[in-house]
Design brief:
Length: about 160
């Protein structure tokens, strides 16, 4: 069994027992860390009717707590992730700074690259998986791993989380 097979088997076992967002996204975080890697991992839900997003899960509750909502910002990131339903990828803090106002905090945590994976269920964007790591980390090869190993499990985690 390869390392990825073991990680997928561990995710399968964890998600099959998960109840609620915390357990579902903890299973997804473990899979992500074991296969692709992430220094900071969060999941944001999206409510387009209310035009807000909410952090439903975080690997760093001190700096990125799960409380509260924030308004949807209509910018280039929104166009890529919400309208085009594509991954947002930035591999330098300068590129992150163009779209995330909290880029200084992100940088202070040792994260200078990001991938935001849109989670689409029943044709609707329901959230984003947000993976951050060191400068230049999310190479085309790692993004391909995310597409292959994380995208479908992210949908499953979102469905389990929604069940409460």
């Amino acid at each position: 069994m390869t390392d990825q097979s073991a990680a997928i088997a561990q995710f399968d076992a964890a998600i099959s027992q998960a109840k609620g967002a915390e357990q579902a996204f903890a299973a997804l975080q473990a899979l992500t860390e074991a296969t692709v890697g992430a220094k900071l991992f969060t999941y944001m839900t999206v409510d387009m009717e209310e035009e807000v997003s909410r952090r439903a899960y975080t690997s760093d509750a001190k700096n990125y707590p799960t409380s509260g909502t924030k308004p949807i910002r209509y910018d280039s990131w929104f166009d890529i992730v919400h309208k085009d339903r594509q991954y947002f990828i930035a591999n330098t803090i300068a590129d992150i700074a163009k779209v995330f106002p909290d880029y200084e905090l992100i940088d202070s945590l040792g994260c200078q690259s990001v991938v935001n994976l849109p989670v689409i269920i029943e044709g609707e964007l329901v959230g984003t998986v947000n993976m951050l790591h060191v400068d230049g980390y999310y190479t085309p090869e790692r993004v391909a791993q995310i597409r292959e190993l994380i995208a479908v499990p992210a949908k499953l985690a979102a469905l389990v989380a929604a069940r409460g």
